[in-house]
Amino acid sequence: MTPTSIFEELYGHAPEGVWAAPGRVNLIGEHTDYNDGFVLPIALPQAVRAYVRRRPDGVLRLSSTRIPGEVVELDVAGLTPGGVPGWAAYPAAVVWTLREAGHQVGGADVLLDSDVPGGAGLSSSAALECALAITYNDIYELGLDANELALIAQRAENEFVGVPCGIMDQMASMACRAGAALHLDTRDLSARHVPFDLAGSDLTLLVLDTRVQHDLADGAYAALRAGCERAAALLGLPALRDLAAADLPAALDRLPAELVPLVRHVVTENGRVEQALAELEQHGPATLGPILTAGHASLRDDYRTSCPETDLAVSAALAAGALGARMTGGGFGGSVIALVRTAEAEPVAKAVTEAFVAAGYLEPHVYRAVPSAGARRES
């Protein structure tokens, strides 16, 4: 059955439209967004699609093609943080946040259909939030722009779901363009669309999903963010973004030992984003490999958000000829990206798979990342 026919079977009428918001891969700039820093993501072809029809009675009915037959029914006026369990919390969070922001929105019948892998570090939760945000913006004629909708989606995850994420995932899902990377200043949301022509350079960006599930609501992510905020306060800075690379050694001498590696990662990672931007503008994507690999070393050794599976994916990809590779996403599992010459894409994927099998891990899922468009109405 198609999602439209499933919607009609569940709700007894057709959807009035279909809206989509993509997952994302971050090329470089990890854990910098909640430090007011810089990021460089691309949107993926994989997306969350929302089949929706507005309701006049204040009832929100939610279903997913991944859970056949289940319909979660909620009273929009009664939504409260912590009051909606499981996957339904994410779409409900967007509706609650819009109402908290003063927008007069009510109910809807919603069917979600997604091919963004969950728990893979590809931002499936932000894609879901952004799909609901753009849908409600249209059906309730709110007139919000992409930045405003991304902030709504971020607040939904922060305050309703309870994950203290930065703004990168939501901005990537809302604002990316096909064929380009998004250079984003997360402090003021100023953005530039930088051409990212993989095919023209005979390159492929592999996404290696280690199938190690991560849950950013489990406290580790929040602890990292709190450590960064504590370090900024001790240094008398609004955020770690304000620490210049030249001042890093002296600043590290002033910090408790446990905060030193966090600060070192954030400052050097912001530098890697700016280095990657310069390389893209001058040479295209072919020279990004060493920057990606350096970013992984920093995540592994300083920020400590890697794991044995992601480390193995990186090392196996590099040994097989990848130009560069690193963990992408919040960490503690998820995916690795590997920049490879297109002719070597299959051999690199095969080498990583064989390394995982030899180590006794689940075989990774492999995708090819294509810079794609952000959130949009599809029908």
TrEMBL record:
Domain named GHMP kinase C-terminal: residues: 277-357
Entry keyword annotation includes ATP-binding: yes
Keyword NADP: no
Chain ranges of the GHMP kinase N-terminal domain: 92-174
Protein's organism: Kitasatospora misakiensis
Any matching Pfam family: GHMP_kinases_N
One MF annotation (Gene Ontology) recorded for this entry: galactokinase activity
Keyword vocabulary terms for this entry: ATP-binding, Carbohydrate metabolism, Galactose metabolism, Kinase, Nucleotide-binding, Transferase
Name of the gene this protein is made from: galK
UniProt protein name: Galactokinase
Similarity comment: Belongs to the GHMP kinase family. GalK subfamily.
